[in-house]
Amino acid sequence: MGLHQHAGRLFAAGMFIVVSAAHAEEGRRELGPHVHGHGTLAIAFEGDNVQMELVAPGMDIVGFEHEAETARQKNAVETALADLKDPLKLFILPESAGCTVTSADVRVIAEDHEHHDAVAEADDTAGSEEHEDNHTEFRATYVLACADAAKVTSIGFPFFDRFAGPRALAVTVIDANGQTSSDVTREYRVLER
Ligand SMILES: [Zn+2]
């Protein structure tokens, strides 16, 4: 999806298409985990407290990464922020664990597409096209208080129902036993612990 959008914009850039396409790759590398369709979720268990941190590309959450301009786009951002503030509707924990949300902080981070290597800087003088190639991420931090966090043996992900863009979340779980990583996908949307 991200590729498609970038491709459309690059096509409009005409002769810069090849150079810009290379930059798009560069941009993804600089952003590290920011690949459209792929977010991250870190879950830390500490006693009966559970802390979660979700990072997802704006493309996944609202379908665009430029600044919201139209009423529809602004509404999409506001609705997404509101929905992300309700983590227990996006990530289903076993009822027996008795978890409630004690804090939910959600924000949109805009990351301008900046080039750091000499080749890219040289190209910046050729046109401003790639300056529009910025990215945004939705970042949410949650703190949950559970009656018995040990009963969080699986987590369901209606997150994939609410948002159409995400294809997978790279999930890291940190608890007293150490750290484990696994991918939860649109097709297999459950995390076993
Ligand atoms: Zn992006």
Describe the structure.
The protein is of the alpha+beta class and 193 residues long. The protein has one domain (34-112, 133-192). Helices cover 30% and strands 34% of the residues. It has 7 helices and 8 strands. The protein has helices at 2-12, 17-30, 58-61, 71-84, 87-90, 118-124, 159-162; strands spanning 38-46, 49-57, 99-111, 135-146, 154-156, 168-175, 178-185, 190-192. It has a 6-stranded mixed β-sheet with strand order 3-4-2-1-6-7. Strand 6 and strand 7 (178-185) form a beta hairpin. The longest helix has 14 residues, at 17-30. The radius of gyration is 19 Å and the shape is globular. The two termini are 31 Å apart. Bound molecules: zinc ion (ZN). The site of zinc ion (ZN) has 7 residues, from loops. Zinc ion binds at residues 2, 34, 36, 57, 59, 65, 135.
Tally of distinct domains:
1
Strand content: 25-35%
- The backbone outline, from C-alpha atoms, is globular
Structural class: alpha+beta
Q: How big is the Rg?
A: 19 Å
* Helical coverage, percent range: 25-40%
Largest pleated sheet: 6 strands, mixed
Mean pLDDT: 81
Helical region count? 7
CA-CA gap between termini: 31 Å
Q: What is the tally of beta strands? A: 8
Poorly predicted runs:
1-32, 115-132
Helix-strand layout with pairing:
Layout (H helix, E strand, L loop, with lengths): L1 H11 L4 H14 L7 E9 L2 E9 H4 L9 H14 L2 H4 L8 E13 L6 H7 L10 E12 L7 E3 L2 H4 L5 E8 L2 E8 L4 E3 L1
Parallel strand pairs: 1-6
Antiparallel strand pairs: 1-2, 2-4, 3-4, 5-8, 6-7
Helix pairs in contact: 1-2
The site of zinc ion (ZN) has 7 residues, from loops.
